[in-house]
Amino acid sequence: MFYLIGVVTGIISFFVGCIWYTALFGKAWQRLMGFSDEKIKTIFKPQRIIVAVISELVAALCTVGIFYNLPAAIPLIVKAIMLIVIIVGHGVKLAIFDGKKAGVIFINEGFKIITILLFVIAFALFGHLIVF
Predict the structure, then answer these.
(1) What is the DSSP letter of 128?
(2) What digits encode the pLDDT tens for the residues 25-35?
(3) Among candidates 67, 61, 95, which has minimal Cα distance to 80?
(4) What is the reported pTM?
(5) Pairwise CA distance, residues 116 & 90, whole Å
(6) Does residue 112 contact residue 91 with C-beta atoms inside 8 Å?
(7) Residue 16 exposed, middle or buried by CB count within 10 Å (0-12, 13-18, 19+)
(8) Residues of the chain with confidence (pLDDT) below 70
(9) Which candidate in 42, 62, 104, 107 could, as Cys together with 100 as Cys, close a disulfide (CB 3.0–4.6 Å)?
């Protein structure tokens, strides 16, 4: 069940990211990044999408593993907040030093928060089924 939760949340997270970076914030993100339509076409190539899917699956499996292996006495929401602080804090720091605009930071880090919350929901619903 551990792997199933990780794979399913990874796939869902990837598709949420597709919606996040297209329908919801795609044009704003593209404009803030200074990317032309031609540049976007070079970014979204099949090889890169495959790497992105694999990265999302690995991140999902690791997140489920962290939620499962941290002591049960720590509430799930506290585990999620811990991850959000680490991941988003690190992302903001890197984005600032990379010279990213505030809007890009909000879009990118907002997606990370949404992703972690998806993992929390999946783990809350199905985490009790994990048996090693």
Answers:
(1) G
(2) 999 999 999 99
(3) 67
(4) 0.83
(5) 15
(6) yes
(7) middle
(8) 130-132
(9) 104
DSSP for 13-75, please give it.
HHHHHHHIIIIITHHHHHHHHT--HHHHHHHS-HHHHHHHHHHHHHHHHHHHHHHHHS-TTS-
- Tell me the Ramachandran region of residue 44: left when phi exceeds 0, alpha when psi lies from -120 to 50, beta otherwise: beta
Cβ proximity of 67 and 119 under 8 Å: yes
Residue closest to 83 by CA, chosen among 123, 53, 46 = 123
In this structure, what are the phi and psi dihedrals at residue 117, rounded to the nearest 5 degrees?
Answer: -65, -35
Task: Dig out the tokens for 99 from the structure.
Answer: 């010279």
Task: Quote the pLDDT of residue 126.
Answer: 84
How far apart CA 129 and CA 115 sit, in angstroms, is 21
